[in-house]
Amino acid sequence: SVSEAKQTNLIVNYLPIDMMENELLHIFWKIGEVVNHKIVRDRRSGRSLGYGFVKYKDASAARLAQTVCNGHEIRGKFLKVAFARPRSDDIVNTN
To answer: What angle do CA 79, 57, 25 make, to 5 degrees?
Structure first.
């Protein structure tokens, strides 16, 4: 498995349903250079599913963001920030 020391992609759970991508970016960009960010949405309705991803340019920023932003309160919700597992297509043929 990829060690957390090298990971740059974070999964962010418990996002307020009305949060937009620019607000998600605003929380995380202060810590380091964000290369990608998205809120996962229902394909038909466009409604937020309450979680998203933030990818940093470097792993040190991702580690700091995981520590600093985990538990961050926004509109009565507490964000849960963790390192994202690789997508299944990234882990094919690993054994």
So the answer is: 40
Would you mind telling me the total number of residues written for the chain in this entry? 95
The secondary structure of the chain, three-state, reads CCCHHHCCEEEEECCCCCCCHHHHHHHHCCCCCEEEEEEEECCCCCCEEEEEEEEECCHHHHHHHHHHHCCCEECCEECEEEECCCCHHHCCCCC
- 48, 15 contact by CB (below 8 A): yes
**pTM of the full predicted structure?**
0.85
| 53/71 Cα distance (integer angstroms) | 16
Residue-wise pLDDT for 61-93, tens only, equals 999 999 999 999 999 999 999 999 876 554 444
